[in-house]
Amino acid sequence: MLLTTATEVIEPHPNNLVTKSNLLIEANYKLGVVEQKIILCLASNISPADSDFKTYTLPIKEFTNLLGLKGTPKYTELRQITKELMQKVFEVRIDRKVIQVSWLSYVAYNETEGAIDIRFDPFLRPYLLELKKEFTSYKLENIIKLKSSYSIRIYELLKQYEKLQERTFQLTSLRKMLGAEEIYPAYGNFKQRVLVPAQKELKMKTDISFEIEEVKKGRKVEKIKFLIFSTRNHKSKQLDLFHENLEEFKLPNSFSETVKKLGLNVGIQLTDEMINSWEKHGQDTVIDLLEKMQYRRDIENPVGYIIKVLNTPGANEITSENGDIVAHLVSEFRQSKEHLPDWLVKRKSIEEIKTWMTIDQEQANQKFEDIKNELYEILQIEELNNSERSDEEMEEEKRILLKRIHSL
After folding, report:
1. Residue 269 backbone class (left: φ over 0; alpha: ψ -120 to 50; beta: rest)
2. Which of 19, 203, 297, 387 could pair with 137 in a Cys bridge, judged by C-beta atoms 3.0 to 4.6 Å apart?
């Protein structure tokens, strides 16, 4: 069947504007630098008035110049690039669904015309078309000269918060967004191979730069705080097309957006009214609580749990200390897919607590005694989730375990 949708020959000009939903910017995915530039080149040719995707025709010569490919363009090489891109997916969470989506739905090579036809997957419509709020815009020229795929992703994540001048990530969350969970596991290597090169590239080639502040728990880096600076003081006339209605365009509420995103990560959709009612307990308190819940698999009613912790005097102090340690240990043990006996969990936990909190052996032993019941039972629930028992048997055992945990 021939594709009969509208076709448009695109001009990948550096002054073209890329506009993406913030939710798409924050999705977890890993693309190579050439693959990212293809996606952003296409996105930069979407008009604010477009209500649907077109099939975009990109001349091969323009394509290779844009991507910085050297030598005479070969169809076999370009076909391999787009073929691999069509197989790449990203994940986006909507309510309790984690949806895996391809970036492209169609690619065709017109060998006689020396051009490529490319079309976005229809699922991307709400993330790239007719955006009215919660989006980020920047000129294509800011990413086209970048050599690192991590630099492009970090640029977008920081550009989103340029007017707020700072953005803080849990180190684990930042790794996921960059698609670098398995790369450079030691923080020192991650910093030198990912963060520092991006810092140099953005300062030299884009309209923003950044400095890094490391937020530590003991000796371990837990969060990365980016201080964001604008390096070019100019406004794009094209940007005004998106900002005509100033009441409709608002700076992102970093607290509200952060809480909503963390809520989606644990499977709940939070309203502004609910978030506002929690803010009286302190923004850092709410965010820290939700960040710790990312590692939990034992909470059946997340909203009820949050309300209970926030409204119980002293409960959050316990959560912020012991809960943080439990979440960290669960994350560490989850990387080992095998069953570990309790004595080995105890030994490894004490070693990790001692290093992570920079405390002596006796203090580490005592801290383990404080958290061992909750740790063992959460690990049992993890094991149940991976077992081959019937659903009824697992649910019954989970209910018993959850009842015991909640009574602690």
Report:
1. beta
2. 19
| Helix, strand or coil, per DSSP, at residue 294 | coil
Give 83's pLDDT tier (boundaries 50, 70, 90). Answer: confident
Using the Cα atoms of residue 390, residue 394, residue 395 and residue 397 in order, give the sign of their dihedral. Answer: positive
Residues whose CB is less than 8 angstroms from the CB of residue 401 and which lie 6 or more positions away in sequence, other chains included: 298, 377, 380, 381, 384
Could you give the CA distance from residue 58 to residue 119 in angstroms, rounded to a whole number? 11
Tokens 């952060």 locate to 258
Query: What does the pLDDT average to over 384-408?
Result: 50
| Domains assigned to the chain | 1-140 (1.10.10.10), 146-249 (1.10.10.10), 252-319 (no CATH), 325-407 (no CATH)
Do residues 55 and 118 make contact, with C-beta atoms less than 8 angstroms apart?
Answer: yes
pTM beyond 0.70: no
Q: Does the pLDDT value for residue 405 go beyond 50?
A: no
CA distance 342 to 379: 10
Structure tokens at 25: 């910017």
Length of the chain, in residues: 408
Tell me the sheet residues that pair with 345. Answer: none
Q: Which residues contact 202 (CB under 8 A, 6 or more apart)?
A: 146, 151, 154, 155, 158, 208, 209, 210
Q: What does the alpha-carbon distance between residue 96 and residue 265 come to, in Å, rounded to a whole number? A: 9
Can you say how many angstroms the Cα of residue 329 is from the centroid of all Cα atoms in its chain? 22
Q: What is the DSSP letter of 109?
A: E
Q: DSSP secondary-structure letter at 338?
A: S
Residue 236: per-residue pLDDT: 44
